């Protein structure tokens, strides 16, 4: 049994090719050294995928003001409940400090660029009423910012209950006051 194992080892050694020794090429001093070219063949695959913009979102503690960047677009969102009393388009006392925050950013980043102000409401009330209320609120913000950031080109639009950022109703059909509060907002946007 021992002999057959040794014979098998010898046979294996004879059939296994010896490792190739590295080729050494004499090089003259100052002569360029070149390496052998390897031909690596194979299928070339394209890498495809969805390209996502990197964004950032910063909010104050009560989330009444958010500052969000997506790609080249900057949007400052101010909760309408901070800017206006219920069913009104007249700015409150709290609104001034919030709009001063927005004006500081506009002065530093939106110089010479058009700024769009979009007003939104929740889903309570008729479509036509909400559309008009959202437009008047956007206009009130525009008027205040025009005094804080003179020389800026503002455009104003009201969208009513369009483009909600939260559900106005709960899954069971009940009222969602927190969702409706998020939908009542004014967005101040510009390209960076």
Automatic annotation (TrEMBL):
Residues 71-192 form the OmpA-like domain. The keyword Manganese does not apply. Residues 156-192 are annotated as: Disordered. It comes from Nonomuraea purpurea. It comes from the Bacteria. Keywords: Cell outer membrane, Membrane, Signal. This is OmpA family protein. InterPro entries: Bact_OuterMem_StrucFunc, OMP_bac, OmpA-like, OmpA-like_sf. Gene3D superfamilies: OmpA-like domain. Transmembrane segments: none annotated. Residues 1-20 form the signal peptide. It is found in: Cell outer membrane.
